[in-house]
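Archive entry: two folds, one per protein. Generate the first.
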Amino acid sequence: MTGEPLVPSQHLQQTGRVRALSNDDIAFATQVVAIHGGKADQVASLPGVVNHVLRVTAAENDWVVRFPVDPRRPNEFPAEIWVAHQASLVGIASPHLVGTGEVDGRPYMVVEYIGPQEAPAADQLWGWLGRYAATLARVPLDQAPEQLFSRFGRHLPSAWTYHLGYNLEQLSQRDPLIEDGVYHRQDLDRLRALLEPLKSTEFAFGLTHGDLAPRNLIPRRAPSPPLLIDWGTATTGPAPWTDLQRVYVWAVHDQTISPDALRRFADAAGLPLSGHVTATLMQMTALRFLDLARWARERRPDLYDQYRQSSQEGLRTILGGDLCDPSTGSSASSASSLR
């Protein structure tokens, strides 16, 4: 949320990270559950991307406590609660909220822990995720909190136009990303040519989850649909395109999921992988790599080295044509072969 991008070329989005528990983390989680009338007989770490995620159990409770990894990250849990509630209104359920608040200025959220009740096949999971992406795109955003919108504004079509125009305008001989090694000067014309078609591409806009990976689905016994968890990366933009673009990166750049998983997600989201769709996803990915580096350089210099490297690697893959073709699962000889 807060319009802050996440590193797209790392597969944390797909796998999450189980962090080692520190004594401070355990003490914080213990204090939080006590506030809400619970106890902490056992504490275990669960996968998370932008938050520490701890499962805290006792005879009286089985809860999940989440709090930000980045101490500079603002309190986004009220926005998460809003999103989860709106999602429930369109048929996408989440675990019950126990409570939220702050301890010594550190925000947290507590929800009930619910384990999987079934073990569906992977193709079923990717189908559910794609359908959820399409459903979330229809959530009304009139009353949505500001954290869900990017630095380019609340009016999503205008924000997209500004977002794209800003990045195209910055592609010049004076672009600091050239000096910083994000891309080479001789690639300027190719990058402009890659992004220009996005100006005439028609998008619908709406809510996106931002991390629609199987680890964020909790299967339930049929006929109940899976629960969807971890709304910490929810945002707005082209929808369901933005969620599909995240899955495209995992399949094509990181190659941490199969091309078949991408196809199943795309079909269920209503965007089958035609030549136009695949080309648009590649263009959106190039734009995301560029904007990621610019955002970090301007707003989070402490993260710039990490984001610069991620963007450099991603753009090199696109411009060098070393992409996995989602239609075949093989390496493509050039970027144009994905069109």
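Generate the second and append.
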Amino acid sequence: MPYNHFKAIQPTLNGFFTSPVKVAKECFKSSNNWECPINHSPYILPQIFHSVKIVTINYFTLLQIITTMKTILLSITMMSFLASAQIGYTVTVTKLMATADDCDGGGFCLLAPQDPVFNVWVTDAQANENTNCWAFNGDNAMDYGVWNDIADYELANESYVNTNYISFDMGAFESDALSTDISCFAGGLDDNVFDRAFNKLITTASMPMNAVYTDTLVVGGIYNMVIDIIWHDYASIDENPNELAVAISPNPSNGVFKINLTDLLENEFEVSVYDLAGNAILTDMVNGNQSTIDLTNQKTGIYFVKIISNNRSVTKRIQVQH
């Protein structure tokens, strides 16, 4: 094949990963052998033939090389996917802060009451998506530059997901709406508007397992959101034969929830409840395989329930919302 003809089809060759048969057929349609200037094509064995300007490759040999390379690439992709563990995770939003000055109806007023709107989306490798919007209207808790310790909101709670990361998108704006009905979507007069955009990707490798990981999402240096993430690997749980089978419901709750040992061999257990600081706030010995726990005197937030029976134990995360 003349070199000029090769140059004409080189763009097709450079894309041979997507259509190897088509490229091979076009390159050899007039001959069973092809004189290929290897050093002019960055994809075909440049390391092996870097010092050879022209080499003859049989049609079927080239086709076999291309097919093998595609198989290798596919294997690498599959291994990368399989490397992501099957996990469960929760994402909870705990605090919000804004530094967006506001004059309702337009204009700019230094340190005026804020009406910020926060939008957040959380996704994973299996395309699970959870979202929520917080809209404030003249709320004194949203003073300029002051953290609003909102009621903890469980944004995501996913189980048995093949992922090794959790990704966040955010959008936000300062509402100039004159009415008390503030939308989660920005209007033409709103200020400091940021449409939905990627914000942060957090890998499971960067977070401790079975513990609270806290991070902050920031949009434009104006809108801030604190999140808590807890994740666990089901493989590590399944490998623990001493873990009790326990169901807790409802979760989240208003503070009253039931514990049910689904392992019928157990007829008594010890239950302890801990706050995020690790302080025990309740301990009780239960006769039977179920009990009702009352935490209505505790503040809204995340707690951990540890159940022990016959030298077997399990710890569950619960959320109290008043």
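Annotation attached to the second fold: Confidence is low (pLDDT under 50) at residues 1-55, 77-83. DSSP finds four helices and 17 strands in the chain.
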